[in-house]
Amino acid sequence: MAIEKYRLPLLDVEGVLPILNKIAVLGGLDDAQLYTVFRMLETEHYNKGEFIFRQGDAPSHIRIVRSGKVRMVENVDGTAMELCEFGPGDCFGETSVIAIHTHTASALAVEETELLVIPREKLFALYDSDPKLFGMLALNIAREACRRLNKTEDIMLHYALGRKSENGWKQND
């Protein structure tokens, strides 16, 4: 895989821990647990327009945007639909890693982007080496998946009931 040449171990503890403290899937971890996660991190660098992964690819990492911007795009019947964008401090790919299903969308670097990544194999190694930390991470990922599902349900409900105008949602005629 071409990205391997970009993957580097992470050395900047003081620069990264404040980012990790803000990530929902790392919520509730104590300093020792955060440091364990830090030791698992690697970095990836992407140029503008470069795909991080494509729809249908097998999941390999949990990714956190350190700098830059990532756009999620889903191909629906040959049409690219922009789903959302992630910026510094945002996390993505975590549900695919835990659920072990292929990516349902593609991730595209909108500008030069640096990601902090937790490789799937390192995450699952925690199951044996630190089951408490693994359980906390799995629970946090499940919570984040539920939060996103609730947000999606709200969007679908608003779409079904009406359309959004400048002043809010209006009922369809």
From TrEMBL:
<feature type="domain" description="Cyclic nucleotide-binding">
    <location>
        <begin position="25"/>
        <end position="123"/>
    </location>
</feature>
<keyword id="KW-0675">Receptor</keyword>
<dbReference type="InterPro" id="IPR050397">
    <property type="entry name" value="Env_Response_Regulators"/>
</dbReference>
<dbReference type="GO" id="GO:0005829">
    <property type="term" value="C:cytosol"/>
</dbReference>
<dbReference type="InterPro" id="IPR018490">
    <property type="entry name" value="cNMP-bd_dom_sf"/>
</dbReference>
<dbReference type="InterPro" id="IPR014710">
    <property type="entry name" value="RmlC-like_jellyroll"/>
</dbReference>
<protein>
    <submittedName>
        <fullName>Cyclic AMP receptor protein</fullName>
    </submittedName>
</protein>
<dbReference type="GO" id="GO:0003700">
    <property type="term" value="F:DNA-binding transcription factor activity"/>
</dbReference>
<dbReference type="Pfam" id="PF00027">
    <property type="entry name" value="cNMP_binding"/>
</dbReference>
<dbReference type="InterPro" id="IPR000595">
    <property type="entry name" value="cNMP-bd_dom"/>
</dbReference>
